[in-house]
Amino acid sequence: MINQVYRLVSPRQFEVTYNDESLQTDYVVVRPTHLSICAADQRYYTGTRGKQTMAKKLPMALIHEGIGKVVYDAKGEFKTGTPVVMVPNIPTEEDDIIAENYLRSSKFRSSGYDGFMQDYVFLKRDRLVQLPEDMSPHVAAFIELITITMHALVRFEQKAHSRRDTFGVWGDGNLGFISALILKKRYPNSKIYLFGKTKYKMEHFSFIDEAYNIDEIPEDVRIDHAFECAGGKGSQDAINQIIDYIHPEGSIAILGVSEYPVEINTRMILEKGLTVIGSSRSGKADFVNTVEFMKEIPEVVEYLELLVGSVHEVRTIQDIIDAFEKDLTTSWGKTIMEWKI
Ligand SMILES: NC(=O)C1=CN([C@@H]2O[C@H](COP(=O)(O)OP(=O)(O)OC[C@H]3O[C@@H](n4cnc5c(N)ncnc54)[C@H](OP(=O)(O)O)[C@@H]3O)[C@@H](O)[C@H]2O)C=CC1
Ligand SMILES: O=C(CO)[C@H](O)[C@H](O)COP(=O)(O)O
Ligand SMILES: [Zn+2]
């Protein structure tokens, strides 16, 4: 069958391509319904990845956060109409030690491999997780971003020491909100401190114990462990501030993606005996755990509704451009595309 794929060909320019796909039994065909824009997609859309990377990765369909409905499963395991979240990581081998999202052989949608901006997405049957019928589709659209925190927490549990009195989250945006929320639910007896830049954004974090403006942190504040969710230019300051305020032997989970290498205070990492945990992307197990977590604690989904920034019906390529442009000018929340193209 012929499938239409909406590819970014150069900054701010999309083109339709027509792919001939065969209906194989190990693949399930999904019609995307709700897609959500990630900061990584914006770096391609605006061309901020630099000429070399753009030349290497484009043309490519963007978007790796999304849900849809099954339209065809030759094996009949998924009924037509089943709501599912799509897993963007595509492993090509298995490893006993290294997780699927760290294997250099894995492909990742919307990072050099076509993402979900297609009429139909052809997924290996293990790349889908069924969703409850009643879950808000606008929240479910960004489950992939929630799996990022869930995955980072698995790594944190494996690598950090066991004192969990205080956590610090740097970043008052999407990932910071999700991380602070999940930390509070996972460790209800711990104090969760937010370190951010903008008062009105920080006001959304009603569930935390304390919010600090990064320019006005009291000298005596200390944390056991930190999650850096700032990314970009802000990640350097955030990581160095964490190093200053963290107790010795604490762990720093770095989640924010930066375009350029950042300078960090390695002397104090050594002196304090800190553990730095890099965390990127997620795998199938993280999606399963995240969907279960959201089903078990419906209050989490209610809080996450606050992150739905703007919703766009997409019927044309111009609608896609409008959604990406609107996302660039929106300072709070996720941009969701209702995929009706
Ligand atoms: N590891 C992974 O697998 C993933 C990583 N990411 C990355 O995470 C990062 C955050 O994504 P997202 O939350 O969507 O982006 P947002 O822009 O929504 O959030 C980042 C927030 O951090 C704030 N900030 C900037 N500098 C600092 C600082 N020094 N201290 C505290 N806060 C600061 C920003 O404020 P302001 O805008 O005012 O500068 C902004 O509010 C991005 O780099 C993204 O690419 C995303 C998904 C997965
Ligand atoms: O957003 C992400 C996962 O959700 C990752 O940050 C993203 O995949 C990084 O990819 P790239 O190297 O293409 O920026
Ligand atoms: Zn992402």
TrEMBL record:
<comment type="function">
    <text>Catalyzes the NADPH dependent reduction of D-ribulose 5-phosphate to D-ribitol 5-phosphate.</text>
</comment>
<protein>
    <recommendedName>
        <fullName>Ribulose-5-phosphate reductase</fullName>
        <ecNumber>1.1.1.405</ecNumber>
    </recommendedName>
</protein>
<feature type="binding site">
    <location>
        <position position="64"/>
    </location>
    <ligand>
        <name>Zn(2+)</name>
    </ligand>
</feature>
<feature type="binding site">
    <location>
        <position position="144"/>
    </location>
    <ligand>
        <name>Zn(2+)</name>
    </ligand>
</feature>
<keyword id="KW-0560">Oxidoreductase</keyword>
<feature type="domain" description="Alcohol dehydrogenase-like C-terminal">
    <location>
        <begin position="216"/>
        <end position="295"/>
    </location>
</feature>
<keyword id="KW-0862">Zinc</keyword>
<comment type="similarity">
    <text>Belongs to the zinc-containing alcohol dehydrogenase family.</text>
</comment>
<keyword id="KW-0961">Cell wall biogenesis/degradation</keyword>
<dbReference type="Pfam" id="PF08240">
    <property type="entry name" value="ADH_N"/>
</dbReference>
<comment type="pathway">
    <text>Cell wall biogenesis; poly(ribitol phosphate) teichoic acid biosynthesis.</text>
</comment>
<dbReference type="GO" id="GO:0008270">
    <property type="term" value="F:zinc ion binding"/>
</dbReference>
<dbReference type="GO" id="GO:0071555">
    <property type="term" value="P:cell wall organization"/>
</dbReference>
<feature type="binding site">
    <location>
        <position position="38"/>
    </location>
    <ligand>
        <name>Zn(2+)</name>
    </ligand>
</feature>
<feature type="binding site">
    <location>
        <position position="65"/>
    </location>
    <ligand>
        <name>Zn(2+)</name>
    </ligand>
</feature>
<keyword id="KW-0479">Metal-binding</keyword>
<feature type="domain" description="Alcohol dehydrogenase-like N-terminal">
    <location>
        <begin position="26"/>
        <end position="133"/>
    </location>
</feature>
<dbReference type="Pfam" id="PF00107">
    <property type="entry name" value="ADH_zinc_N"/>
</dbReference>
<dbReference type="InterPro" id="IPR011032">
    <property type="entry name" value="GroES-like_sf"/>
</dbReference>
<dbReference type="InterPro" id="IPR013149">
    <property type="entry name" value="ADH-like_C"/>
</dbReference>
<keyword id="KW-0777">Teichoic acid biosynthesis</keyword>
<dbReference type="InterPro" id="IPR013154">
    <property type="entry name" value="ADH-like_N"/>
</dbReference>
<dbReference type="InterPro" id="IPR036291">
    <property type="entry name" value="NAD(P)-bd_dom_sf"/>
</dbReference>
<dbReference type="GO" id="GO:0050256">
    <property type="term" value="F:ribitol-5-phosphate 2-dehydrogenase [NAD(P)+] activity"/>
</dbReference>
<dbReference type="GO" id="GO:1902012">
    <property type="term" value="P:poly(ribitol phosphate) teichoic acid biosynthetic process"/>
</dbReference>
<dbReference type="InterPro" id="IPR034710">
    <property type="entry name" value="TarJ"/>
</dbReference>
<keyword id="KW-0521">NADP</keyword>
